[in-house]
């Protein structure tokens, strides 16, 4: 290196990193909402979800429909952060019982602890690590259920934690399992998938318009001997597969295709359609007469299944009433919580 080069190298300014935490792990205050209320309030007021937290969607709409009264038996099929659970427990006013399920062995103990600290112990709340496809097993213990809520999909804690592999934006293992202790990770799933199967998965699970190009690129990479083990690796393969898109729309299209492809893989590895179908089939048998169910879904595939099941059982007289149309969160809620934007709520009442 000559003198001039040495001087130039020496002069290069160190990039200012800023004072705000950027990575998931650096956001230690957001991971302790009880201790840092002010920081949490600030993050929420900016329209973001603090790391390690989930903002519940359509709370008012759900409570208005469920009409929970003290003494009832309820089921939150998707506990998550416990936001909806907490609101439903308030309505029970220490009388009756709420069952809450989640398949996630990582977040469930944290939520249990949080709710216990709020005074919701086993006398009023039973939390089970269980798939909601098995609601019949819950009903064996609980008896007929007066109200059920299912808030489908993933929580913000799961999406934001790079170790879970749910987000294409953050480097992490390509896992995407709600329960990483069971089943097959997305990385392993890709090893065995054929191009037509992957193409079908992208179309069926996410209406991906570039399914053909993306599936060809992924399978070609695997055939070359590449092991696709991280989120960013997959994101780069998708980006490169779409390099034919004109520059002016490429960035947007790649972002959307990444979102959809990750969604398609997530649905596949967690068998989300299969378990939702089973849940919907078993629902009428676990509901008490007049029992109410509300379901929040986040993409068209899920909503189609809910709509079909509700309509069929309504026609058969098993449900006395179903929501005539989709209920959406208010514009204000979508402004505060961008994750609410794709929410579709439907409800049904058992005859
Ligand atoms: C959108 S979050 C629920 C958030 C929750 N309503 C709240 O207010 O905090 C969805 C949760 O459902 C769980 N989940 C998804 N599919 C499930 C299934 N088949 N059985 C049980 N839990 C499931 C996920 O692990 C996730 O924690």
TrEMBL record:
Which Gene3D superfamilies does the UniProt entry name for this protein?
Putative methyltransferase TM0872, insert domain, Vaccinia Virus protein VP39
What GO CC terms are in its UniProt record? cytoplasm
Which reaction equation describes what this protein catalyses?
cytidine(1402) in 16S rRNA + S-adenosyl-L-methionine = N(4)-methylcytidine(1402) in 16S rRNA + S-adenosyl-L-homocysteine + H(+)
Q: Which residues cross the membrane?
A: none
> Where in or outside the cell?
Cytoplasm
One GO MF term on file is: rRNA (cytosine-N4-)-methyltransferase activity
Bias (Basic residues): 9-22
Biological function: Specifically methylates the N4 position of cytidine in position 1402 (C1402) of 16S rRNA.
Instruction: Spell out the family assignment given in the record's similarity comment.
Output: Belongs to the methyltransferase superfamily. RsmH family.
Q: What's the name of the protein?
A: Ribosomal RNA small subunit methyltransferase H
Q: What is the organism field in this record?
A: Dethiosulfatibacter aminovorans DSM 17477
Its gene name is rsmH
């Amino acid at each position: 290196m000559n003198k001039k080069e040495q001087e130039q190298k020496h002069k290069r300014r160190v990039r200012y990193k800023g004072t705000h935490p950027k990575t998931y792990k650096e956001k230690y205050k957001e991971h302790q909402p009880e201790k840092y209320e002010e920081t949490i309030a600030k993050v929420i007021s900016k329209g973001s979800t603090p790391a390690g937290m989930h903002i519940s969607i359509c709370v008012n709409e759900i409570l208005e429909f469920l009409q929970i009264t003290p003494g009832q038996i309820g089921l939150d099929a998707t506990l998550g952060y416990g936001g909806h659970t907490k609101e439903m427990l308030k309505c029970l006013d220490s009388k009756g019982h709420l069952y809450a399920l989640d398949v996630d062995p990582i977040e469930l103990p944290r939520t249990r602890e949080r709710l216990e600290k709020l005074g919701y112990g086993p006398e009023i709340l039973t939390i089970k690590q269980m798939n909601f496809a098995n609601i019949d097993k819950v009903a064996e213990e609980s008896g007929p259920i007066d109200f059920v809520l299912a808030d489908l999909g993933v929580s913000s804690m799961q999406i934001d934690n790079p170790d879970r592999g749910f987000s294409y934006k953050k480097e992490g293992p390509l896992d995407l399992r709600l329960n990483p202790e069971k089943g097959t990770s997305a990385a392993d799933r890709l090893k065995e998938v054929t191009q037509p199967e992957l193409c079908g998965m992208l179309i069926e699970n996410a209406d991906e318009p570039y399914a053909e190009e993306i599936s060809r690129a992924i399978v070609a990479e695997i055939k070359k001997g590449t092991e696709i083990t991280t989120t960013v690796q997959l994101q780069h393969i998708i980006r490169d597969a779409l390099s034919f898109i004109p520059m002016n729309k490429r960035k947007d299209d790649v972002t959307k295709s990444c979102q959809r492809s990750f969604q398609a893989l997530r649905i596949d590895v967690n068998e989300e359609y299969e378990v939702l179908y089973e849940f919907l089939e078993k629902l009428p048998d676990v509901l008490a007469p007049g029992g109410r169910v509300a379901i929040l879904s986040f993409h068209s595939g899920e909503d189609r299944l809910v709509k079909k099941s509700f309509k069929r059982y309504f026609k058969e007289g098993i449900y006395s009433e179903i929501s005539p149309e989709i209920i959406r969160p208010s514009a204000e809620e979508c402004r505060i919580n961008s994750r609410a934007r794709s929410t579709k709520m439907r409800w049904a009442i058992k005859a």
